[in-house]
Amino acid sequence: MVQKAKILLVDDRPENLLALEAILSALDQTLVRASSGEEALKALLTDDFAVILLDVQMPGMDGFETAAHIKRRERTRDIPIIFLTAINHGPHHTFRGYAAGAVDYISKPFDPWVLRAKVSVFVELYMKNCQLREQAALLRLQLEGSGKSDVGDSKEPAGLLAELSARLAAVEEQAEALSKQLDDESADAAAVATAAHLERKLTGLRRALDALEPGTGSGAPSLPSQN
């Protein structure tokens, strides 16, 4: 059973949170509410999120300050942030949003279909990254197990390698389809860059698997970084 991605919704107005939940419920993911920047930072201490929808205008810690804290933490700095704002002070205000680390900056009222489409892209990228981490973890377990195996047990690692290769091929196919979709829809540069980063990590994992095939050398390859 595929685990659902978590989406963090940050807004000090309950009616805005309710509206966001109504818009994003069709994605069938886990929606987590936070009514302040402080509450959002607490949620980020324990849970992993695919994307954060962050209101700019909030009492106390505003959206810009909250984003700055998120980007300073190693655990959360790579989570995409979409700023939502009811005000528009021109290009300078928008630039401040991107400078704070946002991947997008949307003014209210916004088109629900557009917002849902943007969020769905980051959810899909998050799910692909989760699959990649699972493949890498399985590969590490296989390498550790094969290091302790006797020579007579060589068939078992070979079978696991074949299974890992087949699973990786499925992820590679999905990532390629996602990249084509982003190109076709002229998606945001941040989403395209994230997809390219995912494909590079997939390529590294594929090379590691290929190096483990019989006749390719006796040394264990280094695995791709999970950063």
UniProtKB/TrEMBL annotation:
UniProt cross-references to PROSITE patterns, sorted A to Z: RESPONSE_REGULATORY
Residue numbers carrying 4-aspartylphosphate: D55
Tagged with keyword Phosphoprotein: yes
Coiled-coil intervals: 161-188
Keyword Nucleotide-binding found: no
Keyword line: Coiled coil, Phosphoprotein
SMART domains: REC (SM00448)
Domain of life of the organism encoding this protein: Bacteria
InterPro entries registered for this protein in UniProt: Bact_response_regulator, CheY-like_superfamily, Sig_transdc_resp-reg_receiver
Residue ranges constituting the Response regulatory domain according to the UniProt record: 6-123
Name recorded for this polypeptide: Two-component system response regulator
